Amino acid sequence: MCGILGYIGTGFSVSRFAGALRLLAHRGPFGEGIAALPNGAIGMTRLPMSGAAAVPLPPQEGQRRVAYNGEVYQAGCEIHGEIRLLLDGLQRGVLPDGMYALASWDPQTRQLTLLRDEFGIKPLYYSYQPERGLLAFASEPRALLHLLGGARADAEAIAQVVAAGVPLEGQTLFQQVRLLLPGEVLRFDLSQERPRLCQRQRLATAPASEADSLDEQLGETLERCRQTFRPCALLVSGGVDSNLLGSYLDPQLQRFHLCLEGDEESLLPHPRLQRFELRQEAFMPLLRRAVGNFGGATRMSSLLMYQRLADGIGEQGYHCVLLGEGADELFWGYPRHLELWRRRDAPEPRRFAAAWFGEYRRKATLLAEPAGRRVAERIEELAHEALGQGLEAAIGQFDLHYSLEPLLRRADHLLMSRTIEARTPYLHGALAQRAGYLQRIVGDTAKAPLVALLEQREKRWQAQPKRHFRLPFERWPQALGEMRRHLAERLPALHDLGLEGLDAPSVAALPGDQLFTLTTLSLWQQEYGASL
């Protein structure tokens, strides 16, 4: 895995660019390099996974220079072969199977191309300011902000996080800093003095499996995903997804599990299982660090859990872990899927949006008007637009942008803070296409094809209710108290961010999930204050 960086515009500074690249050193401590572009440069740090041979960075492929973060899952490929497959896929309009973010400079056409994989497994942030003649991009927000010299807080994105727990349309909490969307390609013309966006398109991955069964297909995909010369481990939660992956793996392969204070375990015994503990007393210091690494506010309390896992796995010397991410979204494993599918008819937009965002209208009352009303209306507009494609397509769209992409970005940023690559077998090998053809819900059983396969492969498995990978706030009174005290002390600063409806009585009454979202917003404001 790697980090990539780029800047094109007047006022380009080599020293500032080099400083930004150093902020990505944890993503690639085994090499770095810079290539000059008109009025700028692209750069790359490297964590080799498919092969350890040294290569000049960013790699050169023909006349092109390519800054590349990720893996293409094709046997025998090293970095140059992977880049060739990606460049060929861009030309054909169909992407190869893998996880990647890429910046490709072609001096013949004078075009710079940015690409992100179909599911957004690998992140890429960018700032395009045509009025200033500026284009900049990076794998993480801190490096991009260093290039830009800072940015203002984005009031609209902040309002969306307060109400929905996530920015809604590719924004970040920084003005004029956006995420490349999953599967998005941006092409910029650099033939003139100022960079000009000349093409925006969305690409999908070509189907990559001829397996006869889900069992065979998952086994093949998992084998491709674990090909690396570095030791690899499996993250085990105790649920269907990680247990199913484990049933294909060598019993001697290392497993890691996070134990939460006050939580009951439901793990199958395993001789190579190592546990890391997360206790309430570590809550605020660990959360502050996690927010800094993530670069934003979020409703995902698993942010803290991934930081603890990253620290523990990093201390054990691992650079590669397998995750079960994506199975719930592709095979419909959440309670919302059961509820929506039982009704079958397309729900009205408010109820559909609530399946992802909860009581977003109530949460929006903390915002100054008209911001609160506008964000609620925008959520319902997005739900209405999605439902116009049909219920299944709407579920897929909301799952991708408001569940899967943030979860994948969380895994990337937190694990890469300790130089650990996350690999996600459920998102590869055309499993997404197969999932769409299967009966994903059978009676009251969500994720039915995976449950049936696990019962077939692991006779010790016993069905159990869905357990979300999140903090048990109902059993963590110390953490709740810390968040309430923190927010009470930070009320004036939060009012500056537009939360005029937040006061001491409301802080005392907020439920744990909303406390968490607002606490991460406050910590983000503190951690990134020097850049705002």
Automatic annotation (TrEMBL):
<dbReference type="GO" id="GO:0005524">
    <property type="term" value="F:ATP binding"/>
</dbReference>
<dbReference type="GO" id="GO:0006529">
    <property type="term" value="P:asparagine biosynthetic process"/>
</dbReference>
<feature type="active site" description="For GATase activity">
    <location>
        <position position="2"/>
    </location>
</feature>
<protein>
    <recommendedName>
        <fullName>asparagine synthase (glutamine-hydrolyzing)</fullName>
        <ecNumber>6.3.5.4</ecNumber>
    </recommendedName>
</protein>
<keyword id="KW-0067">ATP-binding</keyword>
<comment type="pathway">
    <text>Amino-acid biosynthesis; L-asparagine biosynthesis; L-asparagine from L-aspartate (L-Gln route): step 1/1.</text>
</comment>
<dbReference type="Pfam" id="PF00733">
    <property type="entry name" value="Asn_synthase"/>
</dbReference>
<dbReference type="InterPro" id="IPR006426">
    <property type="entry name" value="Asn_synth_AEB"/>
</dbReference>
<dbReference type="InterPro" id="IPR029055">
    <property type="entry name" value="Ntn_hydrolases_N"/>
</dbReference>
<dbReference type="InterPro" id="IPR017932">
    <property type="entry name" value="GATase_2_dom"/>
</dbReference>
<comment type="similarity">
    <text>Belongs to the asparagine synthetase family.</text>
</comment>
<dbReference type="InterPro" id="IPR051786">
    <property type="entry name" value="ASN_synthetase/amidase"/>
</dbReference>
<keyword id="KW-0028">Amino-acid biosynthesis</keyword>
<dbReference type="GO" id="GO:0004066">
    <property type="term" value="F:asparagine synthase (glutamine-hydrolyzing) activity"/>
</dbReference>
<feature type="site" description="Important for beta-aspartyl-AMP intermediate formation">
    <location>
        <position position="325"/>
    </location>
</feature>
<keyword id="KW-0315">Glutamine amidotransferase</keyword>
<dbReference type="GO" id="GO:0005829">
    <property type="term" value="C:cytosol"/>
</dbReference>
<dbReference type="InterPro" id="IPR014729">
    <property type="entry name" value="Rossmann-like_a/b/a_fold"/>
</dbReference>
<dbReference type="InterPro" id="IPR001962">
    <property type="entry name" value="Asn_synthase"/>
</dbReference>
<dbReference type="Pfam" id="PF13537">
    <property type="entry name" value="GATase_7"/>
</dbReference>
<keyword id="KW-0547">Nucleotide-binding</keyword>
<keyword id="KW-0061">Asparagine biosynthesis</keyword>
